[in-house]
Structure formats: structure tokens, C-alpha cells
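User: Continuing from earlier, I have the next pair ready.

Assistant: Great, send them over.

User: Here they are, in order.

Assistant: Folding the first of the pair now:
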Amino acid sequence: MNQDYIKPDNWSVIEEGFDTERVKSSESLFSIGNGAMGQRANFEENYSGETFQGSYIAGIYYPDKTKVGWWKNGYPKYFAKVLNAPNWIGIDVKINEENLDLNTCTEVRNFRRELNMKEGWYNRSFEAVLKNGTEIAVNVRRFLSLDLDEAGIIKYAITPLNKDAKIVYKPYIDAGVTNEDANWEEKFWEPLEVKKGTNEAFVTAQTFKTHFKVTTFMHNTIFANGEDAHISPSTIDSTTDKVQYTYGTIIAKGQTSSIQKIGGYTVSLNHENTLAAAEKVIKAAVNSGYDALLQNQIEAWAKIWEMSDITIEGDVKAQQGIRFNIFQLNQTYSGKDSRLNIGPKGFTGEKYGGSTYWDTEAYCIPFYMATKDQQVTRNLLTYRFNQLDKAIENAKDNLGFKNGAALYPMVTMNGEECHNEWEITHEEIHRNGAIAFAIYNYYRYTGDYSYIPEKGLEVLIGIARFWHQRASFSKEKNQYVILGVTGPNEYENNINNNFYTNYIAKWCIDFTAEQITKVGTEYPADHKRILEKVSLSANEIQEWKKVADDMYFPTSEELGIYLQQDGFLDKDLVPVKDLDKSQRPINQKWSWDRVLRSPYIKQADVLQCFYFFEDHFSREELKRNFEFYESFTVHESSLSPCVHSIQAAVLDKMDMAYTFYLRTSRLDLDDYNKEVEEGCHITSMAGTWMSIVEGFGGMRVKNDQLHFSPKIPKEWKGYSFKINFRNQILKVAVNHNETTFTVDGDQDLTIVVNGNPIIASKFVQIN
């Protein structure tokens, strides 16, 4: 834990007191989104202190030229920037001729932020003394509509406390923005058109290179004590990329003046005429009105929480943590559009670039499968199918592979590789395995096999071909090996025979061969279509199987463990507990050379294999490998604590499981890795959900049935969650005395609890 200023609360994230040192961290934590767009919690009024300005639109990116010291063949040509979108929230404020700026106010008191996760809005309030002596109270509420997802709304209210006040509001929209992480200090937006109306304005701009067109819009209304003041702008200032209106009003001491600003984006991904679309959005929002839009927001979030909420009794910080994670996941991805995916920072920051990592398949899909309609997960899988040609092109052009072998990118926006670190881009190839596993996981969980003959089998064949060509035969070992890789533990690069990579390569080939046979038997027309399309023969499948059947796995007979890679035991094996805390996090304290030579593990690696393929190993094997590798794991990846929490629960190490749960659930709220100001760790948040449902709840799918082995941390009185399993809603509630299972509907559901099959109907209690 590196910060502790967020107030514990069951349903809200709350900050009290103004501290300039916390501004950027809070901009991340109080971010809002609606699946189509999102923004950091920047102040609407001008702020001259340190800030990280960021608004983002789903699917909009820029191919920033890769910047390296020297070029290597196969290097990605660009690094995909998540673009800082034009600013629509800005409202400059002047009170009695003095600019409102919290960085220059004489005093700021009663400062409070609240992100209300239950209802989906962000509120900021404070009292301030300006340099001219005017004292004011300010309350600002903002939300991004889930129903009208191209629009957001701000209500910005000012009450003068010690004297009458002349208030000037200067709302604006501005496409002249830059990215926090731009390599070349260039702008990414080309202004095209500015249009001004009485109280509304539009700036249309397009991205350089990719030519995404976006119309940013605003509509302003001035109120006095809650009534429309019918004030028109006194001046309208504009440039090629910015429009700013000026509204002046005089308000008596103790009375309240406010501006209501509707804003947002319409994009060429969805509209031929973005300007006309923006005008329609404004009309719809104005016709609905603020109160109705807010009520619709509350109802939309109530519907989301009805299915996805996890309750925890007796531990407010744990409760706040899981709801924060669930809230951010639902803000980031709604599942409506198969062109979109779940970026590692969502709408909270720009770090990492790209919209898709292997995180989606390995961590996010279980959450979306269990809390949404299965079509949401099909959309995520379809996203990869639609980019199969690019994955084949990536393997061919960058690595020299042939015959339709597919290497999915480490990071992508449109299917092209856009990650610019060689040791990750071309060595962290295990991401192919996660994509194949997600196809299996979807079928295992939903029972919907149709995706595989329709789309999934082509993906699996491309991946199997990749593994077949990527492995090489070692005469010394008389087995197939995979050389020069980076496993999930990115603190080891260019190593040989990463256990997890080798294991998932073998599994991918075996699983693909099984599906080819199954599709041939059950879907002969699809089987014929696919094999003809990809020119796959029985002889080629036999060649794959040779690799899978003779894959090498590094082991230590003495320790009874699988080795993370061939040379792991050659390291100076000093456990983390003996590492000076002043040296943590090592990725911020040590040179990369020192990190690579150390035994320290960034995240679950061998244990990631045990997580995916738990049934392939004995409990004793898990225990030996867990106890060995956890002792060297520094958990400096956000993806690490959740896997360890789940496995600690399996091993009845409940204190450890709880500690890891708290870390994954409050990773950002408590800023464990000293980097939250760069944005939240959205994709790993699904791991928090997994820690409870799969860890403490022990939920598994085996032989088409749900299995549970419920456990509860001693710190909790009880917890509950719901899952949608094959279109049946099951609620699980656990306390220290009993577990209850409730099925929503009249159809019974057979489940297995602690190894014993039971029929779950309306209400079943297990003591």
C-alpha cells in the first residue's frame, strides 16, 4: 500500500480534503466511462497545477511511429496510441473578475469527491476563497450516459457565500489537444470544421494517418436557482479547432447560479455524417432533460449491478474494492460492438497503448461470461476471428512463418502488432495460447459449441500451425523445444523452454486436433469448408501431433517442480522475504540487467499454467510449485495477485488468499505499485472477481456442471455473488455456517458442492 486517502464506503469512492499531490492519482481513480467513451476526472475549470488531461473514445487510435535507438528486422512500424480526444468538459470560470483556479485560491476547504458506483455519477464539491476575497461554494456533477452513450452531462453550480457575485462561464470544446505520452511532440488531430449555434457548438476533426472523423459537441444552458435564466452568450470566440462561449450573470449572496453542459462525440465508426449525428444527440439529450437522463443512468446501473454485484459483509474495504473493479469493467466494455475490446487502462490513461492484450482472453472473459449474456463473450471472440488474417500476416512478414501460421499481436488496435519492445513483441508468444484457451473456455462454460465450426476452428488451426513451426527438435534432448521466448514473467527475456509456453503450445495442438475431428463428425459441411479454405491435410495434423506428443518440459526431480525455464535454478535464489523493502518495486529501483539476472518473478508463470489446467495436475504438485515460486514472486504485475489468491484458497492458505485478494481488489485504490496516476489497471480487475468466485467460491466447470468448494476468509461475515450459467441465474451466498444456492426461475440446476451432486432449485442450503 502506497496511499490511504480513499475513504472506506460500500458504494462510493470518496476523497476528502484538497491536496495538490493527489490530483493526478484521483484523476485516475474517479474516471468515468460508458463503453463508448470515457474520461479522467479532470477539473472542468482551469487548473494550473500538475494534471494529466485525458478523454478517450473507444476504437479511436493513432499509429505513432516507433521510436528506438536502432531498427531490427520485423520491428513493429508503429506504437498504437490511445488518443487523448478533444476536450468537451472545459468550463473556464471567472468570479468578480477573478479566474477560478484551485491551484491559486487563497484557501480551499471542504473539498470532496465522490464516485457513486451504484448510480454511475461523479461529484465534486468544495468551498474556496479567491484572491479577490470572494468566497464561493461549488458543486459539480458529471456522468456519461449509458443509454445515450454518445453524450455526457455536467451540472456546475456556484453559490457566493460572502458577497454578491458576477459570474462568467466560458464553456468550450477544443480539438487542439496532445497526448501525455506522445513520442514526437506532435498533434494527432487535424481540424476540419467549426460550427456555431445559439447555445451549441461543434468541432469536427480527424486523426492524421488513420482518418477517424470525430465531431465534438456542446450545448449550454444557464440556470439561476434551478430555473432556466434564458441567457445567450455575450461573445463567441473560435479558432480552427476550438469554440468558446461566454455567458455572464449576476447572482446574490446565498443564491445559486449554474451551467448545464451537454457534450460528447459522434464518430465515423458509427456515422457517415458525424455533424448531423451530433445535432441529433443534442436534441435527444435536451428533450430528455437532466433529471430524466440521471434517472435513466441510475436505472441502467441498477440493472448492471443486479447481475454483476458481489456483496461482502463485515469488511468495507474489501467490499469497496470489488465494487470498484466491477464498476470499472462495466464502464470500459459494454459488449455491444465486436470491433471494440478491453484496453489495459480502459478510459483512465494512455500507458501501454493498444486496445487488446492477452489479458482479455486470460482474465476478462470469465467475468463477462458469468455476468452478461453469452453474446458479449462471442463478440470478444469474434474480435480475434476478424483479425485472423492480420495474425497470419504478422507471423509471415515479421517472423518468416508460412502456410497460414498465425501469431496474434501482443498489443493491437486493428490486428496489426503495435507493441514496440522486441523481447515482448516477438518472444511473449504465449498470448496465442490464451486466445485458444478462451475458445475452449467459452464452450466449456456456455455449452455453445457453434462458435467453433463457425469461426473458432480457423483461429485454432492458425495457432496450431504457429506452434508446430515455432518448436524445434533437440537431438540432445530427443524432444521438441521452444527457444528464445518470454513467458508471463517479463522479468526473464529470451529464455529457453518456458514451462508455461511449452505446455500451452502442446495443449493448443492437441485441442485443435480434437476439434477438427469433432467438427468433422458433427458439422461435416463446416469441416469441408474450413479444411478446403486453409488447405489442411491429415498428414499436416500428424506432423503437429509429433511436436505435441514429444514436447519437452523442464523439471527438477530434486525439488519435485516444473522449472520456469531451463536455467532458473542457476540463479541466486534469494526469496522475496529477504529482499530489502527499500529495493521495491524492483522495476523502478534496479537496472533491467539486474532484474533479468534475478530470480524475481513479476507475475504467475508456472502457476499460470496450473491455473488454466488445474485438472491436469495433482493438488500435491500445485502445493510444491506454489510454495516454491510464490516465494520469488514480487507481484509487480497487476495480473499476479489474483492467480495466487485463487491457488492459495485451493491449498487452504486462507490468510494468504485474503491478503492477495485485498491486494488485487485495492491495487489502484491503495496504489500498490506507485503508478495509479498513469491510469487504473482495468483488465486485471476481472481477476478480482475471479479471486472471489473461483478462489473463495471454488467455482469450476467440469463435465458440463458447475462445481463449488466454498470457503470464507475469517475477516468476512459472509459474501454472495450471481452467475449466469447456460442461461440460468444462480446466486451463491456463503457465511461461516452455511452456503445457500438459489436458482432464479423454475428450472432446476444440478451442481456439485464439495464433490457431492445436488439439485439446486429455488433455495438449497448446505451446512
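And the other member of the pair:
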Amino acid sequence: MGSFMSQRTLHSLFKPTSVAIIGASNSEKRAGNVLMKNLLSSGFSGPIMPVTPKYRAVMGVLAYPNIEALPIKPDLAVICTRATRVPAIVETLAQFGCKVAIIMASGMAQEVNEEGVSLLDLAMQHAKRYGMRILGPNSLGILLPPLGLNASLAHASALPGKIAFVSQSAAICTTVLDWANNKGIGFSSFISLGDATDINFDELLDFLGRDSRTSAIMLYIDSVNEKRHFLSAARAASRNKPILVIKSGRSAEGVRAAKLHTGGIGGNDAVYEAAFRRAGMLRVNDLIELFAAVESLAHSNPLQGERLGIISNGGGPAVLAVDELILRGGKLAELSQETIAKLDAVLPSTWSKQNPVDIIGDANASRYASALNILMDSEELDAILVLHSPSALGESVEIADALIKVIHAHPKKNRLNILTNWSGEDSAYQARKRFTKGGISTYRTPEGAVGAFMHMVEYRRNQKLLQEVPQSIPDNIPTDSQTARKLLQAAQAKGKAVLETHEASPILRAYGLNTIDTWFVKDADEAVAIANEAGYPLALKVQSPNILHKSDVHGVMLNLTSAEDIRHAANAITQRVHQANPDAIIEGMIVQKMALTAGAQEIRVAVISDPVFGPAICLGEGGSEWDPTRDAAVALPPLNMALARYMVIQALKTHKLKDRHLPLGLDMNALCVMLTQISHIVIDCPEIASLDLNPVLAAGENITLLDVNIRLHDANTDNTSRLAIMPYPKELEEFAELKNGLKVMLRPILPEDEPKHLAFDNSLSDEDRYKRYFGVRSKMTHEEMAVLTQIDYAREMAFIATAKGPDGDDITLGAVRASIDPDNTEAEFAMAVRGDHQGIGLGKLLLEKLIKYYQANDTPVLTGFTMFENRNMASLAKSLGFKVTFDMEEHLIKMHMDLKSDTPTHS
């Protein structure tokens, strides 16, 4: 694929060939001294160049009086001076041609110059002008153990390994480093972001997601600023490797502290959690859990399944391990008769005869080794946990050595995951060191080992769930955004801030959501007139702008069955409201039909606006003390039926929603349709600030909204970027007619298209597939199809052409797709059309649509490659204004269009 520009500039951060230290020093306590020491002692092979006018040499290395005196342009510069000097240094470095600078100084955002511009803004302006990138300020630096580079203020160096660690907090960096060195765990890169003014999580995730040296990524996050870029990058990277997140600010106090720490916006913890889950990342709660997870990731193979086998020399630890496994929703493997018979042959007759395999107290090395070998041979397991408790015969280290031998000699060593737990102190410590050295994960407690295994399971489950094909919403459910927005804008024009049930009802009906019949009346007489027409029983509620919770002032009367009931209730309510609040304005009353609640369950759904991630959907049980981010499952829109199901399962699993097994109760499909439609409302209607449906009556397939409250933004708020995840761009749908009269729909692809897209892909002839995939390729798997249909509209686009087939169902006839690099400098496209529909102008329509889309997106360049054999594609591209060149070596035709200057010609 095309090279990525931001990735190009980051190349100098991750693979620098030379380093300059601005402010290098010979005096012990100075940052410029620690930095030189670390650089010189870690084995970096490129030039290390100290810059200081004070000394001829720093630590024996010839120093340069200023930046202009440097003999070469450094790839990386580390600025160790105090804040006031940084802007001028950044300007000089950038002019001189340095690619990336690390700023260590803190407090730059607070200090301003004579013109009132902060030092940070000043430095950033200089860097941007020359295209130099900045890590920091307030950064501890970067360690790249595979290159022997330690350009940091850390008190220790790091070992080389396969984990990348990125942290907003410098203190956490040093803690993690200490722990990892003690455990012999290494890193592919170790980066302190500091205030992340320029280089941020999103670009690093894009780089590390593709970095072959990195097999897992760990993040320590205080706050996220660029929500959309962050989630796009995280989602793309987590498809390739696990990403573990530890997030500070779980409590309100923690949020305030984190805010002071990095000056970020404090969002809701539950919404962060939902965002991480949606991007396929794993949230861990504390450093201990993070370390355990790292231990398993440093030494593990991707899990093939979830079945765990356990070997132990004592019943107690095995029981602890099984309890933890079952509690966390794991699966204990079942051993076949054949495997049990094999174990019988090598173990004493008193062994447990099942999983966990308890091989009895005086288990020696050869018994452990034979048992492990048999379990590794069997087809019933995906992972094995070996436990050892100290016994009188203390062969702790010999047993460990024997197991390491078995594991390394076994043909399945790269497919199975082996975890070990040696408990106890001295002899166990020696054994644990042997395992670590042998590349086998080892833990201090049985629970820790199982916890780490479950992280691997959860990562795998999460990826699978995120790739599920959603079913479509049933055809009979309307989605009429025009009607809804007209009503909302009319309310805004009247200066309304809140819509109650009777006003909100037509808006929700436009999306097929049913509210109970509701009328607004001025007084008791009007109420009686309506009652006589609508029929009893009815409910009466006060309507007053001064009262938030009607039930708090007893402003609600239920089950009224006659005209005198209604008059009596109206008077009683009015009196009670005036007692509670003498100044309350009573606008009138709300009359509602009584819902048939017998056998149904009450739930609550809300949409809140989070300061970081924007709108978030909450699902729970309700109640007057309800806090949506504490008492509900939370998900980010857009939802489809599969993501809605994931949300309901999450709510049930965490007991935020209880299935009360009522006769009519919860119907999964109906709940998912409701949640998906609420997501559509949120996406289609930027006028809505928040939404509260409380209660919602779930009676099997019938879901009724009893009480609705919609808060509106005022009419001039700009809400274009309020969504954290870019929704399906409905506005890009269009109809066209082909030369032969065939009517086709051109539109962006949807996750729901997967079955039809698979049929389309399978319909391509061998020759077309060969041209499309540059070689022979087998049928697509579900995982591969998910990547093609569940696209991130923020960084890729795929348009498909569909037409009605003979049975009235849509058929996919052609597809064109392109992805842009994170910096939007170039899009690269690929295209295919069904064999029986070639030559009728489909390809041209699709490609023209793609060109228009990327022009509107301000992407400068559109390119594509096709094989020599595909002359049709080349001539189509030429006719649309692409420059076409032949690459003889690669045997490819290259198509290139400058979208800024070449306007496509329409032949």
C-alpha cells in the first residue's frame, strides 16, 4: 500500500540514525547529563552529538557550540534546556532540517512571551512551519531497546522485547520499567508522551499496529483529546495485536487529579470503558493486572480457543484456579477417555482422573513431564496451566527444567499457550527465573495466572464479537429523519430547551418507536373531554418548567377511572405542587393512557453527552437515584443490531439489567431494534443534546416509551464533529441508470452487506479474482469479509453498486474501495465488477463517485495499481483523467490522479 506520511515523519522517531542533545552537560544533576549517560551506555551505533557552548566535550564526546555547527542533520534531537529557551531552539532545529524533537521541559503552556503567546504555541508554530514533529513537552523521552537507544531520563535501561509501551505519565513509565527489568521482560519501544501536544496516541498506534517488532501494545492514558482519530487508530491496530489500556481517573477524584496532571478534559469513566471496548482494546484496572497481562502477552501465541487444562501437585491451588476461571466466565477443558487412559499409564492410581489433573503430592520431574506431554498431544486443549506447590521433596527447579525441555521439543509449541505458577519463595523464585528465561509465562499465584489467561480469552472474544455480521433492521420499521428534524428545528426556533412526552412522541414515531397516547391539557375540563373520548383508565401528570422529577412532589396520579377522579386528581396535584414550591408555574396537565404493565418489565434508556466522546447510549433499570454512567451499560453510536446485542448482553452480564423472567419480559430482538433506532435518531438529529426514556415498558415484542424527555441544543451550536465514530454517510446514496436501462443504487458499504458481498466475491471469475488480488487466492473467510464490510468511514471508503434481482432481493454488482493514510495525503483504490455485468458502464460510475468523494474530502492524490493483463481498467482510468504508466519490473500498471489540479474528464 502507499506509504503513510505521518508514518514517514515518525520513522525518524522510531529508527533514528543520529541524535543531538541540546543542552548536554557535565554537571551531575542536570537533565543534559543524565541523557548523555543513558545514550552512551546503551549501545546506540549512530553519532551522538552534544550541543552546548559551555564545554569542549561532554563525557568525553566532542561538543558543538550551537546547532548550526553540527556536521550532519540529526534525525532526532532531545532538548534538555529550561522552558524559556525551547521555542528558539525548536525554530533553529527545524530550519536546520531535524525531523523530530523531544521536549523535556514542563510548564510551557503556562508561560507567555511579551505578545501573550504561550511558549508552547510558539514552539509548535515553528515546528509546523518546517514540518518537524514534537514529542512532549514534559516527556521523559524514548527507549528503543532493539536499536540500543536510550534517549530518556529513566533511571534504568530497558531490555529488547516485543511489547510497545506508551504512557502519558512519566512516573508510571519508571514503575513499569523497574518491574519489567526485574521480570526480564523487554520492549520494542518505550515512549513517554508527556503532554502530547503534537505526537499523540493515534499516530503511535498506527505505527505500532504495523510494526513487525511489536506483538502487543500497552497504553497508560490520563485523557484522550482527539476522540475520532484515537478510536480509528485503536480499532485498526487492535485487529492485528492486543492493546491493553490502563486508564487513570476511575473515580471522580481521580478524574480531577488526571485533569490537573495533563490538563485534559475529564470524561465519564463508563464512557471511556465503552470506547475502549468498541475499539477492541482491553481495559485493565491497575498496574498489577497490567503486569500479569503483559507477562502472558510477552510469551504467548495467539489463542486458538478457550479450553484450559490444569496440572497440579496439590488439590488446593487447582481449586483456586478453577474457581477463578469459572467466576470470570472461562472454560475448563474436558479430557477424552483416550487422554485419561494415557495419563493412567504414567500417574499413580490415586490421581484425579479428570481435569484439573492432580498428580498427587510427591510428584517428581518425570511425572510432571509425562503428564504435560500427554496433554500437549491431546486435541481437547487450547492452553495449559501448570501449578506447583512446594513439597517435602522440593524438586522445584528440576521440575521446571524438565517442563521447559518438554515444551520446547513439542511440535505444538507455537499453537498452545502454556502458563506456569510456582508458589512459595526461594526455590520457587529460581524456577520462575528459569521459566522467564525460557520464554514461558510464569505467575506468583494461581489466580494471577488464570486472570492473565482470561485477558487473552477476552481479547479474542471481543474481536469475534466486533466482527459479527449484523442482521438488518426489519423492513417495516420507519427511519424518517426529515420529519424528525423538521419538528426539532421548529421547537428550537420557538426557543424550547426541553421536549416532554407529548411533544417528543411524533419525533420518536418517525423512527418506529411507540410512546403511549399522551395529550396536553390546560385544565380539568379539557382533561375530562379527552378522557370521555379516549376511554379510561388514565394517568394525570403535572406540567411545570420548575419541576424536574414529577414523582418528588407527588405530581402524578395513576389509574383514574372516571370524570370525578380526574377533577379530584387535578386539584390535589395543583395544591401539592404549590405547597412544595409556591412560585412554581403550572402550564397545565398531561393526560396519558395507562399502560398494561402486568407481566412486563420496566427499563430505562438514556443518551448523555460526554465531554470527551460525545453522545453515549445508556441502558439500565432506572430508579430515582439513577446515574447513567454507574447504573447502566454504555455504548457509543453508531449501533447496528449486532452491536446492540453486544450491549444488552453486557448489561445483563454486569447486572445493570436483570432479566426478571416475567411472562412478557425482555425480547432480545425488540430491545436491539429499539437501541439501534435510538442510535439512528442520535446520528441523524444533531439538534438533540440528551434524551431520557424513563420508564420504557418491555412486554415481549412490544416496547412502549412511557415518559420521554428530550433536551435540545440551541439552534446555533455547531455539532458536526460530536460523534466519536463516523456514522454511515447516508447522504452519499444515489440512483443511476446504465446504458442497458438497468437501475442501480450506488452507496457506501455496510456491515450488513457481508453475505451479499461474499456472494459477489465468489461470483468473480478466476481471471477477475487474479486481476483483483494480484494472484491466485482462495475464497474469503468471515474475518477477511468483516474487514471489507465493517469499514471505518473516517479513513476508508467502499462504494458498491446494487440492483434488484429476480426475487426482489438486492444483488451486489460491483465495488470500488480506497483507504487514505492518517495524514490524508493519498488514497489508493481497487475495483471489481461482476463478470456478467462488465462493459455496461458500472466501473466508470463507481470510479467517478470515488473521485468526487475524495475531491470533496480534500485528498490531494488518488492512485491505483492493476496488472498488465487488465488493459480495460487502464483505459477506463485514462478516460477519466488518470495518468497511466507501466512499471516493467513489477509487471504493474500504475494509475495516478492529482485531485487538486487534474479535474476528471467525462467522456
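Worth noting for the second one:
The first strand starts at residue 19 and ends at 22. The CA atoms of residues 391 and 758 lie 58 Å apart.
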